Every structure is written in structure tokens, then in C-alpha cells.
Amino acid sequence: MSNLKNLDLTSKVGQKVNLEISFPVREGGAWKKLSAKDIFENKKVIIFSLPGAFTPTCSSSHLPRYEQLYDSFKQAGVDEVYCVSVNDTFVMNEWAQAQDIHKVKMLPDGNTDFTKSLGMLVSKDSLGFGQRSWRYSAYVENGVIKQHFIEPDVEGDPFEVSDADTMLGYLDSKAKAPKSMVLFTKPGCSFCATAKAALDDAKIQYKQISLSDAVRQEVIRALNASATPSVPLAFVDAVRLDGTEAIVEWAKSEAKKK
Ligand code: BEZ
Fold this sequence. Notes:
- This protein is α/β, with parallel strands linked by helices.
- The protein is built from nine helices and 13 strands.
- The chain has a five-stranded mixed sheet with strand order 5-4-3-8-9.
- The N and C termini lie far apart (53 Å).
- Benzoic acid is lined by residues 51-52, 55-58, 127, 157.
């Protein structure tokens, strides 16, 4: 039997999402009910849905890229971005924490109500997953689906159109994705703190990797970044910035472009 027997690939553009659905969520140690009304009414919302928290493609690409492009979505006029999965709120919260997600909001659809209402519920029994969501993304204005990107009906777990870059391209064909930046630091480093302050002032996104004494020399030497291995050290879209001064100057020049 096809995994996709209940998948409804017909266009949902113009359709209203079911505003009667609610999502029990755990916030600050207490139960709260998020209603679809609160999420969608009078708001411009992106939803993207995936087969499961902690699964490989969802964790390495689907979710993190929506987080990375969150500020670009906001600049394109979007109010909120939600990640839907047929999982419970505890699992979704743990996944968000493990993935360092602070901007995208989690929407646990453990009862499958929302996913089913969009015809996106599929059986993944062969993997021992039970009922899960097909991968898709949608842009919803005031509860009405304006556009969606549903993965094609092919074997396996296609991931071709529901990605964050496709959604950003739809919302603003001229939008620029932020640069990818990683900043190597070490605990208690005042030069690193200066570099971070300059990046934060310039509102530049970066991932910080704090290197312990045990690994720092070897990591920095392996990157061949400096004759005398030291931090802070940054890479921006494969360009190396060695030391506080270079990072601060670069941050200032980026801030001027904004
Ligand atoms: C993945 O994200 O790679 C995945 C999702 C569902 C089942 C298996 C793998």
C-alpha cells in the first residue's frame, strides 16, 4: 500500500485553514493552548511541516535554514514562522533547544488535526513512525493560504520545494539571504567579547563555537588560520577574518551597508 494513500496534492491556494484547531503546548513548565485563530487571524504567517523532530534532513536542513532566514522573512513582511510536526510538545521543545532555535516557533500537531485538515497526513508505518506529516510549506495571510510548496508524490522523503530559500524567493525575489558566519572563541576571552559586541551592534547573525583548551590549538592550526593560533577567528561565506580588529572592522563595514 502506498505511504501516500491519504495525501491530497490538489491546490489549496485560496483555502482557509481550520481556525477551530488548537495546539496544547508546554511553556515555562505549564500547559497552554495555542489556537489556530491566534496564530493566523490578521497575521502573515509561514508554516512549514516535516515528518519528525530529530530526523536527519529536518534537523540538518529544513528547520535550521528557516531559522537562519527568519530575519529575511520578517523584512519581507512576515509576522511569524511556525514549524509543524506530528509530535508532542515535549519532543518539539527538546528539538528546538537541541537545534538552538529561538525565532521559529514550534507547532506540535500530535493529534494530527491540523495536518489532516490540509490533506497532508501520510502513513510512515514502514519506518515505525505511524501517521506523520508530508513535507510542505505554506504562506498564509489572515488564515487564507496564498501559496504552498508541497513535496512531490515520489518514493521516500523528497525535499525539493518546501525549503526556506524557495519560500523567501516567492515572498521577495530580490531578498538576499544573510551571510553564513561562524565565530571561534574561547571561554573568558575579552578580545572575543569585543568582537561579539561589534557583531551584535551591527545585527549580524553568527554561530559561536567556544573552543576549550583541549582542542583549540589543533582546531585553529587545522584551519591554517594563523601562524600563532588564536581566537577570535571568524569565517564569513568562506572568507577568513583573523583577530578582533579584522572582525570589528568588517562588522562596521557591514553595518554601513544596511
Ligand atoms: C529525515 O529527515 O531525514 C527523515 C524523515 C523521516 C523519516 C526518515 C528520515
